[in-house]
Amino acid sequence: MIAGILFALFVALMLIGTPVGVALGISGTVAIVLSNLDVTWFGLLAVPQNFYAGLAKYPLLAIPMFVLVGSIFDRSGVARRLVDFAIAIVGRGPGMLPMVAIMVAMFLGGISGSGPACAAAVGAVMIAAMSRAGYPGSFSAAVVAAGAATDILIPPSVAFIIYSVLVPGASVPALFAAGMVPGILTGLALIVPAVWLARRHKLGTLEAHLPRPPFWASLRDALWGLAAPVLILGGMRMGWFTPTEAAVVAVFYGLFVGMCIHRTIKVRDLFTILREAAELSAVIMMVVTLAGIFAWALSTLSVIDPITHAIVNSGLGEWGVLALIVLLLMTVGMFLDGISIFLIFVPLLMPIANAYGWDPVWFGVILTLKVALGQFTPPLAVNLMVSCRIARVPMESTVRWVVWMLASMFLVLVAVLIWPQLALWLPHRLGY
User: Fold this and answer.
1) How many CB atoms lie within 10 A of CB 107?
2) Half-sphere exposure of 265 toward its Cβ, with a 13 Å CA cutoff?
């Protein structure tokens, strides 16, 4: 009865437009109160305790730092220099700028780990460049949003950090390593429809007439940006610092590059950068902490075990259950952001994964792939919102282009489902 009220209240609050974090916190609190009517005040103590417990986790310290890194590199001019270098490598021609946009987004994934931050940084440079080359704004927005979705797969990744907090059996280094190959495959899979669509519809007709940047000058300008993921990921691999410490190192490195090397960040810009990062980090952390109340209510009411038992014994079989999970997440991914999906569904899905003996690291990559798909799946696609705002086009105008990129990324998801070693080979090779 109380479990039914918990889910009904959560859905009702979502339908009337309540923010996800608030809906999680209110429904969880109401369920806790109803389950402790005889000792209400003692039951209510679980609310602040779990609120604090959801926040007081060391890996979560990396989130505001990586959000800050994304804001810093957005303003440092690194994205523009990486774009010039990529164009110098691949040249000019039909479909080359979309390829460059996806390549640069993949590379920035090794710096910020945030899809919206990457969409803002790449979109600010690439959407204007693609417009000058004759690409329609809707196509440019779709390409940038899809490319930025690779950021939560290619380490460092905010999504992997949150998953590691929810699933202690999956360490952050192992998840980072596991996301590398699927992230690269996803980027390559997105390049194929982007280039094909550009050539099929004769988009970017002016691109071949634009100047090609000189290779060596572009390389010299891009070196500081190219060194960032090497420093961050190489330092973690060498044991110089933990993922959380790597985020702090990345912040100071980004500030050094922006203020001392490129000199695109002034002292007066720091307040704006810190404010933007603080606002976004606060939203993420509030959702995480309020979801802790919801998760505690689920475990206290013993909701998870009966659901797990019913699904495992439903007769669908392992692949049927896996297909059901993918279908469920594809549906909710159209309406919820990735962090909310993790916080709501990981506590429900992990017992099912444990029942079938699925590797928690591999399962985390599968869930993150689904979240990446959701980041540019209308109607609530955070990456697409950012890129559409930059391109000044309505989101519905991008659908004709987005569907092809969603299909190509979905094929990568299917490949990782069929061949788990695509995700697990590298962490095993590195000894995680």
Assistant:
1) 25
2) 24
Helix (H, G, I), strand (E, B) or coil at 316: coil
The predicted model scores a pTM of: 0.80
Cβ pair 388, 394 in contact under 8 A: yes
CA distances to 159, 232, 241, 363 from 352, in Å = 20, 34, 34, 11
How far apart are the C-alpha atoms of 26 and 284, rounded to whole Å? 17
- The amino acid at residue 313 is N
> What whole-number distance in Å separates Cα of residue 408 and Cα of residue 216?
34
Rounded Cα gap, residues 117 and 67, in angstroms: 8
∠ CA(57), CA(69), CA(336), 5° rounding?
65
As given in the structure block, the two tokens for residue 345 are 């569904």
- The predicted-structure confidence for 31-44, as pLDDT tens digits, reads as follows 777 776 554 455 56
Task: Give the pLDDT of residue 418.
Answer: 92
- Give every CB contact of residue 121 below 8 A, 6+ residues apart in sequence: 70, 73, 74, 78, 79, 108, 112
**pLDDT one-digit tens code per residue, 150-188:** 888 888 777 888 888 888 888 888 998 899 999 999 999
Return the SS3 of 202: coil
Report the pLDDT averaged over residues 385-393.
Answer: 84
d(CA 224, CA 235): 16
Cα separation of 307 and 371, whole Å?
23
